[in-house]
Amino acid sequence: MTDALRAAAETMKAVRERCVWSQQITHRDLVPYLIEESHEVIDAVEDGTRADLREELGDLLWQVLFHAAIAAQDPDDPFDIDDVAETLTEKMVRRHPHVFAGAVATTPEEVLVHWNAAKAAEKRERRSVLDGVPAGMPALARAQKVLGRAARVGAGDDVALAAHDAAEIGAAPESEDELGDMLLMLTATARANGWDAERALRERLRTLEDEVRSAEA
User: Fold this and answer.
1) 213 vs 11, more confident
2) How far apart are alpha carbons 196 and 143 in whole angstroms?
3) CA–CA distance from 64 to each of 59, 78, 122, 138, 190 (Å)?
């Protein structure tokens, strides 16, 4: 660990040990802050300055350090930030055999083959392609992830076909259930075109927000 990262870890350790608020915080208590900081990083990437990105990455790193500091105090199964870093390094070396071993990958597609093979070997206990898809993901992003996993086992083709048919006839939903079907179809369309449905909606919302602020001016 570099001196700067070590200093950040030691700062977090001191805060955890001496700040009465931080002493009471659990992993579960931190979840809302982790979600908020993650979205602030996304905002900085998509609509911020370099300074914004640098600051928000630091705030996100603080969340990782905070979780590690809490974990280090667990009486039954403690681990610290060094253990987290060691586990990460081992995983990334394992998943990049074309960098750290004798495997060959000359295209991004070949890199993904190595990555997925290593990941499958690590997750042998999984029984479904859907295992590991976080339930707490935003619905559009999760739909796109599930559709991608479904394609691996030949499922979800009816959704893509329905999306194509709906686009041709200009179908409109008449109930909340039909709205859900339509949103899933639109997500399938995004996936088929290599688009990010969640990002597309975020960026369109930013345009709308600009319009609202202009109208208020």
Assistant:
1) 11
2) 11
3) 9, 15, 23, 21, 32
